[in-house]
Sequence to fold (2046 residues):
Amino acid sequence: MKVVTFGELMLRLSPPGFERLLQSPALVATFGGGEANVAVSLAQFGLESQYVTRFPSNAIGEAAVRALRAEGVRTDFIARGGSRLGIYFTETGASQRASTVLYDRAHSAISEIPADAIDWDRVMNAAAWFHVTGITPALGDKAAAATRAAIAAAKRAGARISVDLNYRRKLWTEAQALATMGPLMRDVDVVIANEEDLQSVLGVEVEGVDVTSGTLDVGGYRRAAERVTREFGPALVAITLRESLSASDNGWSAVLWDGGSGTLHRSQHYAVRLVDRIGGGDSFAAGLIYGLATGRAHDAALRFAVAASALKQTIPGDFNRVSVAEVDALAKGDASGRVQR
Amino acid sequence: MKVVTFGELMLRLSPPGFERLLQSPALVATFGGGEANVAVSLAQFGLESQYVTRFPSNAIGEAAVRALRAEGVRTDFIARGGSRLGIYFTETGASQRASTVLYDRAHSAISEIPADAIDWDRVMNAAAWFHVTGITPALGDKAAAATRAAIAAAKRAGARISVDLNYRRKLWTEAQALATMGPLMRDVDVVIANEEDLQSVLGVEVEGVDVTSGTLDVGGYRRAAERVTREFGPALVAITLRESLSASDNGWSAVLWDGGSGTLHRSQHYAVRLVDRIGGGDSFAAGLIYGLATGRAHDAALRFAVAASALKQTIPGDFNRVSVAEVDALAKGDASGRVQR
Amino acid sequence: MKVVTFGELMLRLSPPGFERLLQSPALVATFGGGEANVAVSLAQFGLESQYVTRFPSNAIGEAAVRALRAEGVRTDFIARGGSRLGIYFTETGASQRASTVLYDRAHSAISEIPADAIDWDRVMNAAAWFHVTGITPALGDKAAAATRAAIAAAKRAGARISVDLNYRRKLWTEAQALATMGPLMRDVDVVIANEEDLQSVLGVEVEGVDVTSGTLDVGGYRRAAERVTREFGPALVAITLRESLSASDNGWSAVLWDGGSGTLHRSQHYAVRLVDRIGGGDSFAAGLIYGLATGRAHDAALRFAVAASALKQTIPGDFNRVSVAEVDALAKGDASGRVQR
Amino acid sequence: MKVVTFGELMLRLSPPGFERLLQSPALVATFGGGEANVAVSLAQFGLESQYVTRFPSNAIGEAAVRALRAEGVRTDFIARGGSRLGIYFTETGASQRASTVLYDRAHSAISEIPADAIDWDRVMNAAAWFHVTGITPALGDKAAAATRAAIAAAKRAGARISVDLNYRRKLWTEAQALATMGPLMRDVDVVIANEEDLQSVLGVEVEGVDVTSGTLDVGGYRRAAERVTREFGPALVAITLRESLSASDNGWSAVLWDGGSGTLHRSQHYAVRLVDRIGGGDSFAAGLIYGLATGRAHDAALRFAVAASALKQTIPGDFNRVSVAEVDALAKGDASGRVQR
Amino acid sequence: MKVVTFGELMLRLSPPGFERLLQSPALVATFGGGEANVAVSLAQFGLESQYVTRFPSNAIGEAAVRALRAEGVRTDFIARGGSRLGIYFTETGASQRASTVLYDRAHSAISEIPADAIDWDRVMNAAAWFHVTGITPALGDKAAAATRAAIAAAKRAGARISVDLNYRRKLWTEAQALATMGPLMRDVDVVIANEEDLQSVLGVEVEGVDVTSGTLDVGGYRRAAERVTREFGPALVAITLRESLSASDNGWSAVLWDGGSGTLHRSQHYAVRLVDRIGGGDSFAAGLIYGLATGRAHDAALRFAVAASALKQTIPGDFNRVSVAEVDALAKGDASGRVQR
Amino acid sequence: MKVVTFGELMLRLSPPGFERLLQSPALVATFGGGEANVAVSLAQFGLESQYVTRFPSNAIGEAAVRALRAEGVRTDFIARGGSRLGIYFTETGASQRASTVLYDRAHSAISEIPADAIDWDRVMNAAAWFHVTGITPALGDKAAAATRAAIAAAKRAGARISVDLNYRRKLWTEAQALATMGPLMRDVDVVIANEEDLQSVLGVEVEGVDVTSGTLDVGGYRRAAERVTREFGPALVAITLRESLSASDNGWSAVLWDGGSGTLHRSQHYAVRLVDRIGGGDSFAAGLIYGLATGRAHDAALRFAVAASALKQTIPGDFNRVSVAEVDALAKGDASGRVQR
Fold:
């Protein structure tokens, strides 16, 4: 089964352990990016995962290709050109000290992608699913145009389409986000978001939620999801619920609204001791896409997605290095962490 | 006081931190193995600790000798020969993600140990204690024969004998385990096990225990221990109780059944934030042997064993790098972790 | 605003992660010391931070200067001479295993500081604050004499003076501490201590406190602080309250007694997942000095100090690598640790 | 252009820098193996490089697939099964101290490859070239049978066939090597070897060569190559000439005998400061295959091969991480090592 | 003595040892840049070294300030603003494999420096020397304007002025370079270059030099230097002579033309086993500036400069971590490398 | 065969690779010391190697014991007490930059060794050889007294005695050295030295040698050795000849004067590419002791010693990690460094 993703992969640079940036003259250098993280998960889950982006023709671009290929992601349609790969620096927080992300992504190859760089109909040929996040159109006019072209081609090819709203305050305003993302929603089958994204991108407030304290009111989520379906179109709305107790400990769960049947599915809940929470939302999206695309029931797909993303948050780096069997083992209930010999 | 142990030492290869295997091109390379871990603890506690095994005559075998010698273990009776040292790969889990152990131990030097490789009566001369685990006879017919020969010689030498059942599903079936281990029990003074080992090796079920949830019923442990004494012979039965809350947090305690007086001693309980739980059971066995061999009362020996093994689980690697003084400080009650200046 | 500190900076050598000393042939090499840690914090907070000490004229002394200069500390008045820089080895504990500190500081350059090495009136010129700990006079007669000279000059210059009692059992007896520190108190404006320091240095017991269990009685702190003001002179007495639940988890808060108004301020409380607690007390002192010296109200200064020191305990190394903005963000209430993008 | 290779990929474990094995508890973990190294080079050079082997179905096998895929090697036909991946340990020597290789490869998955594990005709479909080394049939009867089947299928498919003799004393005797390799030569187009391989595998002595001193007599190489063509069949015989001045410095060049025209081509010569010479011969083979398969003249192909393998010996790990452009730049004459900005 | 430098400091990211970029997921992260390297050297030599640049107001900019401050460089006049710090990636070559430098410096803070960002007259107040390279004006119109303003202010302040031509093909054409740099030469006292820079920036060819082979003709250097003085103005012209034998071994020496007396000084010659040649030219410039600024004779200053830069090339990173005493020891003739105890 | 050595073992701290001290916050931590290095070599060569010293009773002293025990050195007679272990910092130089050693050894446990700490007659019981260097008596009066007592006891026990003169300028003057070492020579069988030691300790000049340039005149060595035998007594005098071409490349050879037969043996010569030259002289002493103690002829023992010490200089750390077989292979002539598979 072929799944296509489109977005920005960046070089990720992190200090060792819990150090602050450049406290020591060493950086852990990996790669990450919203859709790429989804692509890697889907490849690990055994699907044919085609990732589309634009890389510069230099040693960093080559290394990015190598990183994707290693994980089994297909790189056939990656365009080459532009001057640089975006970079982001990240510190791992602990306890009361928050993790930080510092972007150096302006002028990246994908943000300057020409209109004719990708032959979208060829890319989408026989694709069962297309996934993109709200980050990609926020990279600039050219990336937004490419996103629109990709969605249109996916639609023509009969692929299902998911969008993770992923609002990035540094890239655009809420007004700009709504103006761009709103119209795209018509063609979208599944919207993925957290409560802040819903508010910032679609202007849909989740009532009764206090992000900092982690207080949750399921009713608020249902009403918000209903509004998304009613006002913007997508039948499925998945919302992740992160209780930020500290930079070391988070609660983690999600709901999935099925506008067709009017059902709100609520997932299992995990108390996660965080190793690396970057990419947590992407691993949820990938789990959900995998579950839905392979025909699992809505509640089972949700359960799989939450288990997958709990595991991700215990693994260093953006990528979720787990198999379907490992996710299923957790989803089926063994969260004891007993040694597997 | 001379203590003898016999078993397999392996090269242990682990990825750095919480990474998955070969996520980075680096492995932490140490050594570990059930009886060797006990031998190291006992040497650190100041006993004359003789470890018997078979190593190949190559650079890896030499490094294994160096690792043991560094910790003060006597290597006088280690046989040389065979083609390879066993290897095991281990990942450190976190939260909902379990730690994993992947064995590459087939055809190891000890599994092919010739019948005449060790002069067991010379080894056991003046020994006060002999310890072996259920892993060693599971390595194959030759290792099982050597185990029987060792126990017989220990008996002749008047040494007390302890066995840690340590069932390994990858090495043999439950039926094979019972057929081999059952008869050995006659000569054993102290049996050490967790509830799964009792079931798998001796067919003795511990009722009222749910491993995954960590629910414990002391009565079940008493009944199981009584059965071991009654049906198999050993007067002392120590059972460790691990509550696997997650791969990051475990509850840890133990009971010691004294068949002679019909007493069940229950230890203190620790909530352990795990650093490395591999070798936890071995450090318990070593603590118990040390306590009993040096004449401490049963409940004090049990208390020492549980404190020793709690400390082990906070130290990277298989070996328990603590002194008697450090264990006693914890056993006497200061679990506050205040800085020792 | 110019702040002066005086004390011993040492080379700090630690094994990687949770290893015990020299388990691997590698040491993390940084620098640390009570007053130097305060000096670094104050420089990071934007004050003109002059650190006074004595360094040997060799590559290690040069590296110490580099480390201070990097953090923005002014090194203009550091004397050169003597034969060595003090060293301390530290292990990071976990769970039931305590962190350890092993000193190799005898015969350090500062412990042999000649009477004329520092022109204290020049140093204190225009200084707004002077800070020293009880460690410095404990280093020996010469260091004690220098401490007295520094305090006298600070007084002449009109600087406010703070002392962190910091009792070190390895350096002197309680009787010696009282004989030296007691008379100094007359010139001190702010005393900083924990309950053990009060008892050991000034003979002032805090009643109703059980250090190991973490039981706290605020009334006891009030009475102890009142006694310090009454018997020794300082109007402000800050006491840190550490609940040592384990080597991994501590409770952290503080009180500030204002002898002038007869008010006891009690701070917010943090449950800290420890990364590195060495330097925690120093970061509290720096936070308090910053708050008081820049004119914040007593309760706000206390709040800032506790937030600053909670953050420190999540950062490897002695130094508190945080900005005023980061401390204020936590002090204002966001302890959720959400990712800062 | 499709090129197929077949052989054993092993986990390669090396101590850091110039350390001896397990001097520190750390190993650099990469992958390597004769044909796999060729496959990686050819993928880097832009050919469609299909590598065939057998991997165990476990985390180490998965990591091996990831390593190959990262470099662009196609893994479509890799069989899964067996119990382990072979391992080799290697130390990097310096000056008078030789590099060492210690194999732990017995019982590897490929050595136990079933006769029907690979559908060779499907593998060879449309292949332009097939390459194998003398190591693969030396792994045991099953691997030898698979090698024969592969060569037969390659022949049927019209692919050109190259063999690197690569004698391994630990795997078989010279008599065994000749009995197996001799008959295979009939179907081989290009033989690659050094003077020791020619002697040990085919019994063809190169006269006038003193391996240790590095004395070379071109006439001896010509006569030996002529004999290979005459007695065994292959028209092209490439012989690498390594002058082992020390473990740090080698001379490096090669000759190519064209039996068709009776011409001996002699390459350029490099004085190589070694970084990692493991894989040097494989990178030569890959360079030669690339040159010949893409239609370069014999002398140009030889020149390319020697330049490629000189570069390999300056790069850590078995794999030759260079592009055609980089090799051509060196082959065209710029060996100055000036910084490329 | 106050010396001012102005230019771009970049984050330098390098793989460990001789690896190629991102062969492992680790980068060594330091800082470097032409003028900054000079500034660090001069600070190490004991001068008051003021470095002027523009840094973004983020964690990377802070780390850059820390790196400079650590080495004793004064950062008082560094402007803050812009969006990013330039980055460069560098691989360390060996033998026939060249070192590489890959720039990601477009849109850096300094390349967008506003005209009023620096108060140049305040900066140059009491300065004895100003140094800049040809890289800075090549960064763009704003940086070129700032360079012109800096030179004009230096002239007004009576400082001597040196320029290292440092041609960068990726930043501008030879025609652009001449158009910008030619007019600046009028105010310059000392020009520093290699033979390629003279050709590319000033159009002055050094005859009789074959860069790749390392053949040198002193007469050609004399004639080229004379032309620079005659046609462009600067009285002193220093030319470095690098014989690139390989990426591991270089010959290193220099000449200094004194247009006033019509003398060509030729330096000592070193055969350098390279550790890190990046920054070699900058360390030469710094040595020459130090020698000339502190009143050493021309030949002694040249000798000091060549010794300083030979040492630099044995030290990892851009910065030359040596003292005047260490340089003088080498310049006086002891190149034996005997252990200094 | 039992060999006894007595001296100071220190903690050795080195920056990674070619970095200067504390350029990065990391130190490689091993152990080394003249006699300990000899003891390790002899243990590796298979002799019973008893090392005597005094260690503090702390974690660093424990780690030192572990390091010795790992290498097979017997630690039965090591005294415990005193306050610290000596430390030395060392940088690895390259090319024109010298390696450096910075000592922090004052007040070490052994320098304060009480007169009754060691029962020397028990230590020397059945010893065949005793070895000490000139460093040990230079540590202070107590260490000198212990050295005298050790030599006297060795003499009583009939052991042969060797002394490596090893002059340390930082520890004593030449006059002090002669006053202490001269009288000891009467009981010494073998003196080991380089030409500087002979001059500084015994006042015996080697004529015709220019240390820096590496010019050697064998006649001068013969005359100097003859004088040592004639004036001080020892029949055998071994002198190592190091040609310091640079910090990267040294020539290495030695002579052995046999005063009994009036023969000067001259060794083979190696051009050594240095990895770590610290401990080179000690590995020579160990090789010579091994050769002589096991009854090899004088010229063969010398050849073995020079080969052993050439290998040492290619291995990181003070210890010479080679076997007798490896040394013999080199001594017999294969210096080609070809890979050992």
